[in-house]
Amino acid sequence: ELDRRLVANGTFLDQRFVIPSMGYNHNLEIDNSTHRVELNLPPRPDMPEPDTPGVRQRFFGAAHSGFVSYEAIISTEPDQTALTSGELIKTWTADNRRSFHYRIPSKCLHYLGFVSGRFEMERKVWNDVPVEVYYHPDHDMNVDTILNAAIDTLKYCSDTYNSYPFGVLRIVEYPKYTVMAEAFPGFIPVSEGIGFVARKEPDQVDALARLVAHETAHQW
Predict the structure, then answer these.
(1) E-assigned strands of the chain?
(2) Edge-to-edge strands of the sheet including 169-174?
(3) Residue 8 host element (H or E)
(4) DSSP 8-state assignment for residue 4
(5) What letter does residue 184 receive in the DSSP assignment?
(6) pTM, full prediction
(7) Rounded (10°) CA dihedral 44, 50, 51, 55
(8) What residues contact residue 211 under an 8 Å CB cut-off, 6+ apart?
């Protein structure tokens, strides 16, 4: 299958493809049951019951690691913006490369993503938390919906649980080479196909607002 994660504009990678992991990583096993039969592999075990000892101490997306300190310097094309989790410390251009330095002041899950592309950006601030949406210049039709849904969710979850755990929330478009969204610490890549160019019919539930609320709630 063609690997389309690394592209000219809108690259989206997660840590599985760029950061080594220690020990055996179950997340990298073949999970297609038909393919496992073809390869004479045994069935994968079912998800453990919620009360299984120790299971609530492991995050399914990064079961091989606990909380970590995170800091990253990412270099990209001079006309692109590189994005990941954390507060932006500084950015600079040298040797025809544009670099970005990010850091999360507190510990976070070892579950991290990276996006690079040519973006426009809209921002609102809620309770001193910048909420930023990065999008393809021609895909601005749903940006207000995304911002408002994210802020509504920040309000609800902060009142219901505790304060938002990160200094910034970024929601970032990437191309429709896969149709999904993913919630990393303070950083949510969303496929254009389910977010930025999605249409809402007047008599339908706003699926985009629901998607943004779902991914923002994962921050807790």
Answers:
(1) 11-14, 67-76, 81-83, 87-94, 97-109, 113-117, 120-126, 129-135, 169-174, 187-191
(2) 120-126, 129-135, 169-174, 187-191
(3) none
(4) -
(5) B
(6) 0.85
(7) 60
(8) 181, 190, 194, 195
CB contact at 8 A, 126 and 154: yes
Per the listing, tokens 């426009």 go with: 120
Predicted local confidence at residue 1, as pLDDT = 45
Residue 108 β-bridge partners: 68
Strand duo 120-126 + 129-135: pairing: antiparallel
Residue of 111, 117, 211, 122 lying closest to 166 (CA atoms): 111
Residue 29 pLDDT greater than 60, yes or no: yes
Contact 161, 87 (CB under 8 A): no
* Rounded CA separation 112/61 (Å): 10
pLDDT at 64 over 80: no
